[in-house]
Each structure stands twice: as structure tokens, then as C-alpha cells.
Design a protein that fits this description.
This protein is an alpha+beta fold. It has a single domain (about 1-170), classed as Longin domain (Beta-Lactamase, 2-Layer Sandwich), CATH 3.30.450.50. The chain has eight helices and six strands; from the N terminus they run ββααβββαααααβα. A six-stranded mixed β-sheet has the order 2-1-5-4-3-6, with helices on both faces. The relative contact order is 0.12. It holds the Pfam family Synaptobrevin. It is a single-pass type IV membrane protein.
Length: about 220
């Protein structure tokens, strides 16, 4: 079944709205909600617009629409088609109600009132039988991408975590290389200066001696 839902802004992962979960759900999904935050931080303009990320007994399904990410945590056995049908309904209603305000909001959960619609829609999608009966006509109207669930990217949370760790290590390595490069350039400049001093110091000494001699001789 659909367990929890979070809506964020894609550009900066600012939370815009979220389902109000009971204490038991909050505790059981604590780890997966942390994983959802990781997913939001990994979102880029090149990310897949629809993706399912498997994590233990749950799957995180997300949909990106006009700079807004709609993500739901559902049981692993819950059909992807119904999960994305649910997200599709949320995205249409949310963009109709708040789409023009998304880019201008600054505080988190600015659209907390959207929970009413989320709760009502989530109840319809609580299990596969209810969802199929309540939204059969909606499913028939879904676009080709949604109907063909095989086109929806599927990933594994471990893979996402590993890729993120690799990116972090690459970033650290890049920073270290830049630091070492700066140290090398500084050392190279010092060596060049010292070499110039050693090369021209004798000549400079002779010239200085001649100038002193001329000054002393004629003045």
C-alpha cells in the first residue's frame, strides 16, 4: 500500500508538503524517509522523470513535474502502475493549485494544506483492490509512459548510496588535487625566483660594485 508521501522543489530539495503520518508509520519509515532526503539531493536536471528505487521491503517511487518532485514510499509488492497513478493525480492537482507559487516560496512546507487532498487520494490507493476499483477510469487515461511501466527506471538504494559515496570521494579527491596543484605552483614560483637570484646575483653584485666605485671616484 501507499505508506507516506513527500513533495519537494527539485532545484534545492525544499520540502513543500508531506503526508501527516501516524507515530507507528513514522517510526517504521524513519530510515526510508532519510533515504528519500538523499534521493531529493541527488535529483538533477538530467535525472529520470519517473523512477522506482527499491529499498528492503519498501520501494520509493518518484515523479518530477515542472521543478517539483513527488515521492511516495510504498510496500515493495505494491504495483508500480498504481503508485505512479497516485503520484500523477497528486502532481496534476498540486500544479493546478500551487504551480505558480512553487519557485517563489522560501519557507519549508509552505503548502501544508495540500495534505487534505493527499490523505483523501492515499485512502483510495491504500491497497490494490481499492485503488483498482476507485481509479479504474483514471488508469485508462494515463499516457503511454505511465501505461508502459517497463519504461520506468528502476534502481536499487544500495546502488544509489554507492554512487553517491563515489561522487563524494571524487569531489574530495578533486579538492585535494586542486590544493596540491596550488602548493606545487607556489613551490615552482619560489624555485624560479631562487634560480633567478642565483643566476643574476653575481652580475648584480658587479654592477653595484662599479656604481659604488664610480660614485666614490668622481664624487
Amino acid at each position: 500500500m501507499v505508506c507516506s508521501t513527500i513533495i519537494t522543489r527539485a532545484t534545492d530539495a525544499l520540502p513543500l508538503a508531506a503526508s501527516v503520518d501516524d507515530e507507528q508509520t513514522e517510526q517504521s519509515l524513519q530510515e526510508h524517509k532519510q533515504q528519500a532526503k538523499l534521493v531529493f539531493r541527488r535529483i538533477t536536471p538530467n535525472s529520470e522523470p519517473r523512477c522506482s528505487i527499491e529499498s528492503g521491503q519498501y520501494t520509493l517511487h518518484y515523479l518530477i513535474s515542472e521543478n517539483v518532485v513527488f515521492l511516495t514510499i510504498a510496500d515493495k509488492s505494491y504495483p508500480r502502475k498504481l503508485a505512479f497513478s497516485y503520484l500523477d493525480e497528486l502532481s496534476k492537482e498540486f500544479m493546478t493549485s500551487y504551480g505558480a507559487k512553487v519557485d517563489s516560496v522560501r519557507k519549508p512546507y509552505a503548502f501544508v494544506g495540500f495534505d487534505t487532498f493527499m490523505s483523501k487520494t492515499a485512502r483510495l490507493y491504500r491497497d490494490t483492490r481499492t485503488a483498482s476499483a476507485a481509479s479504474g477510469s483514471s488508469l485508462d487515461k494515463l499516457n503511454d509512459d505511465l501505461q508502459d511501466v517497463t519504461r520506468i527506471m528502476t534502481k536499487n538504494m544500495e546502488e544509489l548510496l554507492w554512487r553517491g559515496d563515489s561522487l563524494d570521494r571524487m569531489s574530495h579527491l578533486s579538492t585535494s588535487l586542486r590544493s596540491e596543484s596550488q602548493k606545487y605552483r607556489k613551490a615552482a614560483r619560489n624555485i624560479n625566483i631562487q634560480a633567478m637570484i642565483r643566476q643574476y646575483a653575481p652580475i648584480g653584485g658587479i654592477v653595484l660594485f662599479i656604481l659604488i666605485f664610480i660614485y666614490w671616484r668622481f664624487w
